């Protein structure tokens, strides 16, 4: 076995990989010996004999990103969806979205059916007070769009929520608004 291998095998991790403080201290001691004969400019403003090089980072121009559709044309799944879609109907999406620290998490269920469709958004009031109503959806903490049948557990919880909300508005007088559809 060579001397270096023996030295490494008996050395500890701290000796082989010193912390940053220890490395900086060892560099300072080495540079102090080299600089002993040279005069160093003081921190109080004596000019240095050497000019420092500055590095300039040029911005990278924005490039439009290509999509798979651009490169390979439309997928067969897209074409099937477009063909089976009836004119005048809009798709109904079922999903549960949560806001996370670094983005959003979304769970979808394309096969979900039900007799009723619920859209629910939960916000923090202090975050949306100054946001226009048309832009509030971007600030939702939780968004749920879900088709439900009246015998499901979610529907029973929703029923309880609506009953409790009615109690919150019990003392408020109702206001009549005409129907959007009965304008004749």
Short description:
By secondary structure, the chain is of the alpha+beta class. It has helices at residues 3-10, 13-16, 20-35, 68-72, 76-84, 125-128, 153-168; strands at residues 95-100, 103-108, 116-122, 142-148.
Shape: extended
Helix percent reads: 25-40%
Q: What is the radius of gyration?
A: 34 Å
Pairing-aware structural class of the strands and helices? alpha+beta
Structure summary, number of beta strands: 4
Notable traits:
184 residues, alpha+beta, four-stranded antiparallel sheet, 7 helices, 34% helix
Structure, described:
- The chain is of the alpha+beta class and 184 residues long.
- It has a domain at 89-168.
- It contains 7 helices and 4 strands; from the N terminus they run H-H-H-H-H-E-E-E-H-E-H.
- It has helices at residues 3-10, 13-16, 20-35, 68-72, 76-84, 125-128, 153-168; strands spanning 95-100, 103-108, 116-122, 142-148.
- It has a 4-stranded antiparallel β-sheet, with no helix packed on it.
- The longest helix is centred in the first third of the chain and has 16 residues, at 20-35.
- The radius of gyration is 34 Å and the shape is extended.
- The relative contact order is 0.07.
- The model is unreliable at 1-9 and 22-28 (pLDDT under 50).
- Residues 1-88 are annotated as: Disordered.
- Residues 1-13 have a biased composition (Polar residues).
